[in-house]
Structures are given as C-alpha cells and as structure tokens.
Design a protein that fits this description.
Blueprint: H1 2-18, H2 39-43, H3 46-77, H4 85-108, H5 112-132, H6 137-165, H7 171-207
Helix pairs in contact: 3-6, 3-7, 4-5, 4-6, 5-6, 5-7
Length: 208
C-alpha cells in the first residue's frame, strides 16, 4: 500500500509539472486560502457546520475502524500482519468503480441528498455487520468493500457541498475549517478507538 501511494504521488507530481497550467500570482486567494477574519462567520453557518461535523465523524469512524480491523484479521482470521495488504488492496481498488456511479448520480442527476443519506446509512450498517461478526476473511473483506464504497462517496461529495454552500469569498476559510474537522476527527477516532478496545475489545470498536 505504501509503494502504491508513493507511485500515485509521483504520478501526481508529473501531472502537476507537465499538464497543470501556472496560476496567475495573487497575494490573497479568498476562494482558496483561510482568512482569519472570516472564521467567526464560517463557524456560525449552520449548513457548513453540518458538513464539518460530517467529515469529523467520518474520519473518526475510519481511524477507529483501523484500530480494530488489523487485530481482527490477525487474531480472529489468523492472517499475519505482512499479508493484510491482500485484503486492503482489493477492497480499495474495487471500491472506486463502485462509488463512481453514485457520485455521478449525486452531482449530474441532482440526487445529492438521497446519495448522501444512503452512504451514511451504509456506513452505519457496515459497522454493525463487523460488530456482529468479524471472524471470516471473506466476510471482513466484503464488509470493508461496502464500507469504503460508501466512504469514498462521502469523501468525494462533502468537499463539493462545502464549495457549493460557502459564499465565494469565504470558500478558503470554509475549506480550512473543514480540513481541521477532518484531522480532529482522526485524532478523536484514535483516542476513542483505543479506549473502546481496552474496555470492550474489537467488537466495541466496531460498534462505535
């Protein structure tokens, strides 16, 4: 997975240097950079706060999930840590084509709310499915595929919603708050996941 990430990062650098045009220089990009004076207004916007809470919870769940999944694969399935990529890589690759039609449906067909709520429900069901059973490699792989298909839908649509709902001159600040929520969620997910693991075991983390 790390090699795949490194290769994709290098491909991204190549695209930036060969295809992406050079931007016009400007000292302040209110549509792309946080402006401290605007943070209060952004934090008082209820619609934006809902989306910030959404990405916060999404990454909290993701981080907690990956406290429990490696332990389930090692202790319940008997899969050594060095072979976990055999589950993760197919799951990630197969989840991408699964999410594309729903992103198109949300963006191009105007079904954003239905797709968004459906993805949230699917993530909840996937968590419950893992809490119910996490002793078979095919079961874990299938549920992770369902989880990441829904996760990728939300990961793609949430920034789009932020961009659409934020006033044009406050988009940079809105995205700054959004990104902060993302990383704070990952932090809290790790902390809560560790507490739940210590108190209730792997099942407790999945039920989180």
């Amino acid at each position: 997975l790390f090699w795949l990430t490194a290769i994709l990062a290098l491909l991204g650098l190549l695209v930036i240097h060969t295809i992406t045009p050079d931007p016009v220089e400007s000292r302040v990009h209110r549509d792309a950079e946080p402006v401290p004076e605007q943070l209060g207004q952004v934090l008082r916007d209820r619609q934006l706060l809902r989306l910030d809470a959404g990405i916060f919870l999404l990454h909290m769940i993701l981080t907690a999930l990956f406290i429990a999944v490696p332990l389930a694969l090692r202790d319940q399935v008997g899969l050594p840590g060095g072979e976990h990529w055999k589950v993760y890589l197919p799951v990630m690759l197969l989840s991408i084509p699964a999410m594309v039609p729903f992103v198109i449906l949300a963006e191009a067909k105007g079904q954003m709310k239905a797709v968004f709520l459906g993805a949230v429900a699917v993530i909840g069901l996937a968590q419950l499915a893992l809490a119910w059973s996490h002793s078979g490699i095919w079961w874990i792989g299938a549920v992770l595929w369902v989880f990441f298909s829904a996760f990728n839908i939300l990961e793609a649509t949430l920034p789009s919603l932020i961009s659409k709902m934020a006033p044009p001159d406050k988009k940079g600040s809105a995205m700054g708050v959004y990104s902060s929520g993302q990383f704070l969620g990952a932090f809290l997910g790790g902390a809560l996941g560790g507490v739940m693991l210590g108190q209730f075991g792997v099942t407790g983390v999945f039920a989180l």
